[in-house]
Structure formats: C-alpha cells, structure tokens
Write a structure and sequence with these properties.
With about 600 residues, this protein is of the alpha+beta class. The chain is built from 19 helices and 19 strands. It binds zinc ion (ZN).
Length: about 600
C-alpha cells in the first residue's frame, strides 16, 4: 500500500557556498531515500529551501558592503544550480524569504501565543551606543570565558566549540566598528518549553526504540538531565520576519524559530504551485504520514525538541493564508536521522578558513555520481568520517570502476558486438544462471530494508556485494571463451548477466542516478528511470524567487527485479565511469593548501 512520506531536508544558510560535508550530512541521504521511495511507489514529498534570514546573512552583507537581500539571492541562485547538477530531486526547494513563508510562520507564532505557550520577558543584550542599535550575538566578539580564545563569537567559540552566553564575553567589541558595547534591557517573546515538557518527553519515548543514539542523547537525554526552559524566539534585528504584534517594530522572529516552519510552508507552497491548494494536508494532517528530517548533528535540538514543541503547541493551527481554523493537529517527526560530521584530510572542515571541498568546484572536475558514490561509502551515519583524496581515488578506481562500471561495460559491449546490438535469446536457464538471478532478486528486499531504516552505506555495500557475485558468475562461465565452442550457451550466460545488471541498475539508481539512467538507455529502454528536475520563477509581494522542482511522472523506474526481454534492441554502450589518475591526489592536496592552482 502506498504511504505518504515527507522528506524534510536541512535549510542551507544563504551566506556560504556548499561543501561536501553539507552534502553528505543531509542533502544526499535525503535524495537517496526519496528516490528509493518513489521507485517503491510511495507518495514522497521532498522539501527544503534557502534560509534567507538571520545574522549569518546580515554579517556577510556587512562584510561585503552589500544588502542581505542581495547576498541571499546570490547564494540561493547558486544552490539551485548546484542541486540540479548533483541530482537532488527536491519536489520544492524554495526560500524563507517568501510571502507564503512569512504568513505561515507568523500564523504559527500567533497560534502558540493564543494557546498560551508564549510569554514575554526582559533580558540584557549588548547595545552599541555609537550605532544606536542592539547587537545580535554574532555581532559581538570577545574573549571566550571558557578557554580564553580572544576571537570568540557571541554565540559560540570556534576554538573550544562551547556554546556561549554572549553577555559573559570578556572584553566585548562590536563586529561592525570595533567599539565597546554596553548591556541594556530588551524585551522578547519566549517559547514556554517547560510547559510542553511532558508532551515532548512522551513524543520522544514513543520513538526511543528506533532513533539514532546520538539524536536521543541530545534530545531525551538532555531533557531528563536538565529539564526544558523557556527560550527567546524574537531578536532585535530588522532583516527577517516581523513579529506580528503591534508595538514590536524593529524585532523579528528568531531565525531558528521560523526556518523550521519552512518544512510546513514549503509543503503549502508546493501545493499552491501545483494547483491543488489543500493537498498539503495529506502530509501534515494525516497521522499515518511518516515525516523524516535529514539534518546534521549540530541541528538536533532544533528538530528533535524545539520543532516538535512548536508543532504540539500550535494545536489546531490557525492559518493566516486561508483565514480559517483547520481543526487538526500537525504531523510530528517520525524520525530525525541526523548525521555526524565529515572532516577533510584529518581536520575539521572550515568554510571561513577555506579548508573545504566545495560542491561546485568539485563538479567542475569530476562527475556527480563519482561524488555521490564516495560520499555514500563514507557517509558519517554513526561516527565522524574523513574525506581523504587518496581514499577517494582508491574507492573510485578499485570499487566503483572495477566492480561495477567494468562489469556493466564489458557485458554490454560483448552483447552488442556478438548479438547484433540485441539482448541475446537464452536457452533454458541452468542452475548457476537461476542462482545468480535469484540472489539478485533477494537483494531488493535487503537493500530496501537498509534504505528504509536509513542505513544508506550498508544499502550501497549490499548492492555492490551483488555486483561482485555477478563478476564471479561471469568468471566461472567465461562467456568470452564459451562463445567459441557453444554460442547458445554463451547467449544464456550473457542474457543472465544482462538481466542481473539490469536489476543492479535499479538497486544502485538511488545512489548513482546519472550513470544508472545512461545504463538504462544502453539496455534499450525508451522511457527514463527517473523524472526531471527544473527551475522556475515564482512571484509574490516580496519579489521574485527561483524554485527547484521535480516532475516525477516522466520516470518509469520501479523497485522490482529485471524482466529484460530477449531480443530487445541495445544502444551502443560507453563506459559509465572514469578511472582517475594517481596525479590527482597531490594536485588536489596542493589546491587545498591554496598552492599554485587557481579555482
Ligand atoms: Zn573557547
């Protein structure tokens, strides 16, 4: 039976390009999971967008003497381009800077207020007398009171990693002009998490048996140890979503409070764009829906505690867009399979220090499936992993090319050459032919089970192990010699191998969609495996914003074993992957250190 599945993917901040750690942390696993469920015939919706607001964007704008709007638009356009090239099949990748998102976020705020889960309180905040404005955390730097590092940011110390209370910074200074700020009183709205604690704990307990342990530790474990306390959800900032209350000018909804609401607003926007305005409820009001949140470990508390609190507290949500009360509760997360971090050559990836492999730069030299392959085999699902250029080369050449690419290419080329460009007609299948086909068929269950429980590395290795089995089958049958004494026997071998490869193509397609699509065409299919990505422009009262979408209907692939027809016309095959030269390792390492090579 077809299930409704929401795939909610972390929103990248529109202030920095995307590196391989971001991709393997959340975007790629979400896409693999989504492609699989589409092949299974489930009703999947994959949504996300650019996080346009907050101090990361305003700080960047100040640094380049630009406006937050310009900064956000530039990075957003880059994301749309990169995600297409990577084959990330978002049903909708939008942004938080849309009229729709403003309304949905504000209405959720008002629902929480009406239901008694918000209160106001005063606190002390750094204020710049020179600029006559409050300074958000990221605008204040000073000496870390934990480790003594002299360039700590107001919200976090980059040296010791501690989350900081900005008010306790030693020798604070404004990031804008270096002047010394003073503490002044300011008023904010707080989300009353204490009041929601028992419901949050119950929500988490019901998921305890299957959530990743790091996610449970940072949610349930933290609550049981420390309890939940009110948290400010507004900021003194003018770039963002205004607090929808009179007399609160100059204050915005805190970016973390509103960005997570994007999962809901993006679904609503998608429903409107596709001219079925009520269909968002199939994912948000149906208790049978499974909502998966693909994020990195730094975002766990926001997705496993605070976002569920917002959803529970919103109750029977009042929606400003439709100006009606919906009378139903919003779907809570089913799973939050957060990944750990990927390091680079033994060191933490750092965008600001340019210690990173950037997605767009990588794709200017290598193919997207090469990246998807390495990032999947090295995905930080249970512990931090390391991007190592030598390891990248070895895995590409010794696994991807040797085990899978060469298998597909040599069997297809052989069939194309000796059977006039057609799938050979087999004789009766022998026990060894039946055995390889049935072990591949069993792979659909095994690989699928791993993907459904978000063990994507295991799923990929399971599929590759089957490719190894097919290689062994071929070595034993040796059709290259068999054809000289018995062409019919060779036909049976090559037919069985092609059918196995046709099945492996489906098993590997969520991971390696570009090359599996090409292989699908070489095998003579005329309808593509997958649908099409496209970018279009949406218009509202805040201006234009580009969105990335996906047309699923044009894809004909299904998660079932091959029924390849004997006699089907093949296309002239070409190798699926490139073997990489040893020289790329020192070259890429030099590039990382910023030596000599431009780009
Ligand atoms: Zn520190």
């Amino acid at each position: 039976m077809s299930k409704n599945i929401l795939v909610a993917v972390a929103w990248p901040y529109a202030n920095s390009p995307i590196h391989v750690g971001n991709i393997t942390g959340s975007y790629l696993p979400a896409d693999i999971f989504t492609r699989y469920h589409r092949l299974k015939g489930n009703r999947v919706l994959m949504v996300s967008g650019s996080d346009a607001h907050g101090t990361p964007v305003t700080v960047q704008a100040d640094a380049e003497q630009s406006t937050p709007l310009e900064v956000y638009r530039r990075f957003h356009a880059d994301f749309l381009d990169l995600f297409q090239k990577l084959g990330l099949t978002y049903d909708l990748f939008t942004s938080t800077h849309t009229e729709n998102h403003f309304k949905v976020a504000q209405s959720l705020f008002l629902a929480l207020k009406q239901n008694g889960y918000l209160y106001t309180d005063s606190s002390l905040q750094w204020y710049s007398p020179a600029q006559r404005r409050f300074l958000p955390d990221r605008y204040v730097e000073g000496t870390c009171y934990v480790c003594g590092y002299s360039n700590a940011r107001g919200d976090q110390c980059d040296n010791c990693g501690s989350l900081l209370d900005a008010n306790q910074l030693i020798d604070p200074r404004s990031k804008i002009d270096g002047s010394t700020p003073e503490l002044r009183e300011t008023k904010h709205y707080y989300l009353d998490l204490g009041k929601l604690q028992s419901e949050i704990v119950e929500f988490l307990r019901r998921r305890e048996s299957y959530w990743r342990s790091n996610v449970l530790r940072q949610s349930l474990g933290q609550i049981l140890a420390n309890g939940l306390h009110g948290r400010a959800i507004t900021r003194d900032l003018d770039w963002g979503i205004p607090v929808p209350i009179e007399g609160w000018d100059g204050k915005c909804l805190y970016v973390w409070f509103e960005a997570v609401i994007g999962y809901l607003s993006a679904t609503i926007e998608w429903a409107q764009i596709t001219a079925q305005p009520d269909v968002w409820r199939d994912w948000w009001n149906d208790p049978a829906t499974q909502a998966y949140y693909f994020i990195g470990k730094d975002n766990i508390p926001f997705h496993a505690v605070i976002w569920p609190a917002q959803l529970i507290g919103a109750g029977e949500w009042f929606n400003l867009i439709f100006e009606e009360r919906h009378g139903c509760r919003l779907t809570l997360p089913y799973d939050v399979p957060a990944n750990e971090f990927m390091n680079l050559e033994g060191k933490k990836i750092s965008g600001s220090r340019n210690w990173a492999v950037w997605g767009a730069d990588f794709l200017s030299r290598y193919d997207p499936d090469t990246l998807r392959y390495y990032l999947t085999t090295n995905m930080p699902e249970s512990k931090d992993t390391d991007w190592d250029w030598q390891d990248f080369l070895n895995r590409n050449n010794n696994q991807l090319v040797a085990t899978w690419g060469n298998l597909a290419n040599r069997v297809l080329s052989f069939a194309y050459k000796h059977w006039q460009g057609r799938v050979p007609v087999p004789g009766e299948l022998r026990p060894e032919d039946q055995q390889i086909l049935s072990s591949i068929e069993a792979g659909f269950e095994k690989v699928g089970a791993h993907i459904e429980t978000v063990r994507l590395r295991a799923a990929m290795f399971e599929a590759l192990a089957l490719a190894t089995e097919v290689n062994k089958y071929l070595d034993a049958a040796a059709p290259w010699f068999e054809i000289k004494r018995d062409k019919n026997a060779a036909a049976t071998t090559i037919y069985s191998a092609l059918r196995a490869i046709d099945s492996l193509k489906v098993l590997l397609s969520p991971f390696l969609p570009f090359t599996c699509e090409r292989l699908h065409a070489y095998l003579g299919y005329t309808q593509p495996l997958f649908g099409e990505q496209f970018v279009e422009t949406q218009q509202d009262s805040l201006g234009e914003h580009g969105v990335l979408r996906y047309r699923a209907e044009t894809g004909a692939g299904r998660w079932v074993a091959s029924q390849l027809a004997a006699g089907q016309t093949l296309q002239q095959p070409a190798p699926l992957f490139r073997k990489l030269e040893d020289g790329i390792v020192p070259e890429e390492r030099a590039r990382l250190r910023g030596e000599g090579i431009s780009g």
